[in-house]
């Protein structure tokens, strides 16, 4: 059974109509989202060259990763080392867990309280509603899980394979920005990372609501495993572009922490997910995060951001989402912010 999306939709639509009648400014939502967007293939990088390639091929691969992270903030990796078997098992377990009744998911004892999310609790207007449900799970919940299930063991396996890829990419990006690459193995240990399982149910009003509202990720980098339905879009050169699914590839995107740590060299790019009227969509994301006490320090003579801990960043994001209905993110931590 789906979460009560229709009810929240009706409530927010009613609010929008009454506001329009009463001339209260609530930006109409008919809508930037339907604007034509180009479908493109993101840069595709064969990362097996980092391990099997000769010196020249390795260097070329590193440069490809760094360039895509500077120019797109997004790229795809193939021959990434995460086995098809683990990916398929992850997807099957995910489909199974979302099939459970809404009441069971929302009171789920599988993971700690608040891991299951649907819609956008803070939404005060239609444009803030996300037509999706997710389990946003801290890895500690999985490693400490005493009742060993196929779900938790599959998540553990998916996470350990993703972790290896995430370290490898983060180390390349550190090296190419002149930073020490051991930072990640020291500060982003297994238990500080997050795994997120997303489900986007079919939506009867696809032109009026997002599957996932525009956001940047609050981590160092994200590894995304999506199905072939499509719907992910990102901003490039001030335009929304749609990502064409590639069955062989995983998507990598730079998060806020890497943008700050690299002093804006690598870009944490806004992205969103569009809904589909008939087909449900699934994706799984692995977020490379440091411990809450880790300090994100820009290395530069003129750092764009002040030093901040991951704890501070998360708390600020949560406070903004609660108070304003959206995440402000990095601009809050700019030096000379006024
Ligand atoms: C309402 C919100 C929660 C969120 C930030 C946002 O403003 C929009 C999307 C949400 C999201 C989705 C991806 C990540 O899980 C997340 C941590 C992020 O960076 O953007 C969450 C944010 C959150 O849950 O705090
Ligand atoms: O489902 C997708 O394609 C993107 C999901 C996403 O952006 C996220 O979970 O942060
Ligand atoms: Fe995201």
From TrEMBL:
InterPro entries: DIOX_N, IPNS-like_FE2OG_OXY, IPNS-like_sf, Iron_ascorbate_oxido_reductase, Oxoglu/Fe-dep_dioxygenase_dom. It holds the Pfam family 2OG-FeII_Oxy. Coiled coil: none annotated. The keyword Oxidoreductase applies. It is an enzyme of class 1 (oxidoreductase). It catalyses: gibberellin A1 + 2-oxoglutarate + O2 = gibberellin A8 + succinate + CO2. Its EC number is 1.14.11.13. Belongs to the iron/ascorbate-dependent oxidoreductase family. GA2OX subfamily. This is gibberellin 2beta-dioxygenase. It comes from Eutrema salsugineum.
